[in-house]
Write a structure and sequence with these properties.
7 strands; 9 helices; alpha+beta; 19% strand; three-stranded antiparallel β-sheet; elongated; single chain
């Protein structure tokens, strides 16, 4: 059947694909626009899957749905693509999808969100993919994403937390990276892995021994350094970035009976 120039133009505006690709898709599907879109999606997906370029750029998005909050990362090949308005809108759509799910922890997007990502691959013609997402739930939740959309955090808590404090804690988690301070490995010491603690203690012990200290003294020195290491690598032990002059750990700012249930930090 004959494919009109208007049909090709309409399909091109809808998908962002080239004129010849749109015409070929319409021809192969007998002029059915819906089937042509699916065919173009299939073609574009195959092309993107075989690209060798790294998807090292991207953007974050957050969304809240009831007592659930989610943060997701959508990756792309170029920062130019990640700053595209449509890219950011689709990233938000994926975040909304993840926030509305029932699962907690690491979450994969549903069919509608996956289609949104495929649509981006068609229109932008880059290797674009879901770079991961986390959903948390709690009586109180908050989020923060830096203005460049390259780093952000979400948090879930219970107790008499102010919105300002929870957002401030999200800002701290987002900023917690060298050289400012170590990225926290866990909420508190109980959450630190035995392997990480053993490695740190062994390092501090060997450093003390290398200075010629007796084994007993070396053990005491290593123990002191371990206390500092634990504080530096746990969220509750770190000095609150928004109140650096006070030199008080985050645990000091928690309301009486308040508890941080979970947090997640993402970065491109």
């Amino acid at each position: 059947m004959a494919i009109s120039a208007k049909d090709v133009k309409d399909l091109r505006q809808t998908t962002g694909m080239g004129m010849m690709e749109c015409k070929k898709a319409l021809t192969e599907t007998g002029g059915d626009s819906a089937k042509a879109i699916e065919l173009l999606r299939e073609w574009a997906g195959g092309k993107m899957d075989t690209r060798e370029a790294d998807a090292g750029e991207g953007a974050l998005a957050v969304a809240q749905d009831g007592d659930g909050i989610a943060i997701v990362k959508i990756v792309s090949e170029t920062d130019f693509a990640a700053r595209n308005e449509e890219f950011l809108a689709k990233a938000q759509q994926v975040a909304n999808d993840v926030a509305a799910q029932d699962a907690t922890g690491s979450v994969t997007p549903g069919p509608d969100a996956e289609k949104a990502i495929e649509d981006l691959r068609i229109t932008i013609k880059e290797k674009i993919a879901y770079g991961g997402g986390t959903r948390l739930t709690g009586p109180k939740v908050a989020s923060y994403v830096h203005t460049d959309r390259k780093s952000g955090a979400i948090i879930a808590a219970e107790g008499d937390f102010s919105d300002e404090l929870l957002r401030g804690l999200c800002m701290h988690i987002t900023a917690a990276a060298p050289p400012m301070c170590p990225t926290p490995l866990a909420l508190d010491e109980a959450g630190l892995s035995e392997e990480a603690k053993s490695e740190a203690l062994a390092q501090f012990t060997q450093e003390a021994k290398d200075t010629g200290k007796p084994e007993e003294i070396a053990a005491k020195i290593a123990g002191g350094k371990m206390k500092k290491w634990v504080s530096d690598h746990t969220l509750l032990g770190q000095i609150y970035i928004k109140e650096m002059d006070a030199k008080k750990p985050i645990s000091h700012y928690l309301p009486k009976g308040g508890k941080i249930l979970a947090y997640a930090r993402f970065a491109v």
